[in-house]
Amino acid sequence: MKSEHSVPTMKDVAKEAGVALGTVSKVVNGIPVGESYRLRVEEAIKKLNYQVNSYAQGLKASKTYTVALLIPNTEEPFFASLVYHINLALLRRKYRMLLCSTDFDSDQEQEYVTMAQQNKVDGIIGLTYNPHLQIEENTPFVAIDRSMGTKIPCVASDNFAGGQLAAEKLADLGCTNVAFLRIGSSLDNEPNKRKAGFENGCLSRGLSYEMKILNDGDAYEEFESFLSEHIQDGKLSFDGIFCVTDRLAYLIIKTLRKLNLRVPEDVQVIGFDGIRPFQGTEYICSTIVQPVPEIAEMCVNLLLQENLSSKPPLVCLPVTYAYGGTTREPDSLFIRIS
Amino acid sequence: MKSEHSVPTMKDVAKEAGVALGTVSKVVNGIPVGESYRLRVEEAIKKLNYQVNSYAQGLKASKTYTVALLIPNTEEPFFASLVYHINLALLRRKYRMLLCSTDFDSDQEQEYVTMAQQNKVDGIIGLTYNPHLQIEENTPFVAIDRSMGTKIPCVASDNFAGGQLAAEKLADLGCTNVAFLRIGSSLDNEPNKRKAGFENGCLSRGLSYEMKILNDGDAYEEFESFLSEHIQDGKLSFDGIFCVTDRLAYLIIKTLRKLNLRVPEDVQVIGFDGIRPFQGTEYICSTIVQPVPEIAEMCVNLLLQENLSSKPPLVCLPVTYAYGGTTREPDSLFIRIS
DNA sequence: TTGTATGCGTTATCAT
DNA sequence: ATGATAACGCATACAA
Fold first, then answer.
1. Strand, coil or helix: A3
2. pLDDT at position A331, please?
3. Tens digits of per-residue pLDDT, B93-119?
4. Contact A118/B120 with Cβ under 8 angstroms?
């Protein structure tokens, strides 16, 4: 007999329960049905250990309750956190998540978009770098950190405000001469606004500042020489540094210590992202924290929202400052202020 | 007309190319077909921007090229790395990955197994904690770090050897009196063998050792008092500590420094896992490195292997020691030895 | 209210 | 070699 070897189908359940196929379908989908029928069907389902086949469902309904997430990787802590929170936000809504690691590769990004569409996903969330990414009109797409035209909503932190906040914090903490260090994609994306925000903050608070901006290919060593050049008699000419990411801040702090500069006594450092080495531990440095859970929630909401017409082109979520050991203690700050 | 609004199907392509449905299917699947037909079909596919529907394929073939990964979360660095490498290993084989974050919750673990089976996944890879996880016979399953019976292969690092290696390294580095600190699941899983391996290593190298073992619920502070109790005149009675994970090592190192003990001068610390704060940066501490890429590859290989009969019950992969700043410099070691 | 029949997009088995 | 047709498992419009 067939049903012995293969997984049971609705037909098997119907036969077992002695009812019609449609009745089983209704029971499965919670559509009202005669009490006695329902019981018999439920019993049969348990007996056969029946489970609906999502693929048949998806084919029928052309709705698959699946969303693809395109992200460079899951090892870099910020990405890892994003993946986790988006996964949770989706699972809460009974959606499944197809994870696609793109490794920053434009071709892979395009490939996975195609793959996702073959899979008839209900939507795609993407943190991508390919400036020419082709997306079918009929596949909802939400971008993270990069605007891809008015038809595609973009969700990001308020990077400009974050830059401003960093400048203001450094000013509050007593800095007068600061630097902005940046390395990363030269692509026009949202995180690039951190620079403008920082400049703006420096100007409004009367901080004198300098910038050192590298591109992705450039050697990190350029930062080392930049810093060395600004040391005179063992003293750095900056008393505050804003790094575009916590990752860079981490490296810069190591370099500063190698140069016999104390952090935060000689120079205070603020990063951006809000990375912790492990879950539940302290921040790796003083930092502007991105609201990752909120970003995740917003992406999923926008993606699954029915009325596509009212989708905003850009959503910026508020960031916060957090102490992480590389700026003056918050306590000493209170003393100074009061 | 219909094909204007919905996505094109094979039928649309057939009509466009003026050939039969079956012919299109053959072209799509690379089955030989008359040259002129093939060209016409390919042209029609491009013109309509046709893509095969994986859901219809999956329904027909009851093979979906999808694998589910059950893991507590993707934020903890070790899990994040595992997710990344498993994702790559699957994508290399043209398999898709369904990510399920379980948050260490037994009910969620069971729920996602059921969900995955409904999705007719071709297999499940799981790093789970539910001791009673029910898995359908016909769904291939590979476990990470925990044996779940002889029918389910388990892939793990060689945790016993790792524990041994830690003891041997500490001995090589000049330690004579060491401690083993552990916190974590009391469940019977592979990482628990680190303790036995360490004891074994200590015995064979004549190290005297002490153990402090906490369970998941216990307060971290117990380690602090344990360490405090072992300080006399500002000196710790251990010169080496092996922590069951890098995470714990990280916390312990912070505590040691708070107690005015220098690492590695006063006490050397070795962790386990091989965590880096960011991709491409140095290890967070001296550590026993788990071969994550190899674990990932092995899981995927075992899962997709055809002959289910020859699946080994337990595969242990070799670990390595890596210097990470919390043991004596490898250079000074060479000098000492030579 | 319950049962029956059709179609979702593909693949594969047949005749042609 | 090509084209028609059935079947995969489910949902639903429709008939009973």
1. helix
2. 64
3. 999 999 999 999 999 999 999 888 888
4. no
Please give the Cα distance from A59 to A57 (Å, whole number).
Answer: 5
Q: Are B207 and B173 in contact (CB under 8 A)?
A: no
What's the length of chain A? 338
- Quote the pLDDT of residue B32: 87
> Phi, psi (5° rounding) for residue A243?
-100, 145
What is the per-residue pLDDT for B337? 44
Note the strand D nucleotides within 7 A of protein beta carbons. Answer: 1-13
Q: By C-alpha distance, which of A235, A263, A238 is closest to A251?
A: A263
Spatial neighbors of B14 by CB under 8 A, at least 6 apart, are B20, B21, B23, B24
**Cross-sheet strand order for the sheet of A314-317:** A314-317, A154-157, A141-144, A123-126, A66-71, A96-101, B96-101, B66-71, B123-126, B141-144, B154-157, B314-317
pLDDT at residue A335 is higher than 70: no
The first and second tokens of residue B274, run together, are: 């091989």
Distance between A114 CA and the closest CA of chain B, angstroms:
8
Residue nearest to nucleotide C11 (CA to C1'): B60
pLDDT value for B184: 85
- The structure tokens listed for A157 are 């932190």
Residues of A in contact with B96 (CB under 8 A): 98, 115, 119
Average pLDDT over residues B39-50: 91
Q: Which residues get their CB within 7 angstroms of nucleic chain C?
A: A 19-23, 32-34, 36-37, 56, 59-60, 62; B 6-7, 9-11, 21-22, 25, 28-29, 50-53, 56-57, 59-61
Distance CA A159, CA B320 (A): 41
Separation in Å, CA A244 to CA A28, A71, B309: 52, 20, 53
Chain B residue nearest residue A91, CA to CA: B100
Domains and CATH numbers, chain A: 10-52 (1.10.260.40), 66-157+294-303+306-317 (3.40.50.2300), 159-291+318-336 (3.40.50.2300)
Q: What is the dihedral of CA B197, B198, B201, B202, to 10 degrees?
A: -150
Asked if the Cβ–Cβ distance from B51 to A117 is below 8 Å, we say yes
- Point out which residues pair with B317 in neighbouring strands: B157
Q: Which residue's entry shows tokens 């190698």?
A: A258
From chain A, pick out residues whose CB is under 8 angstroms from the CB of B105: none
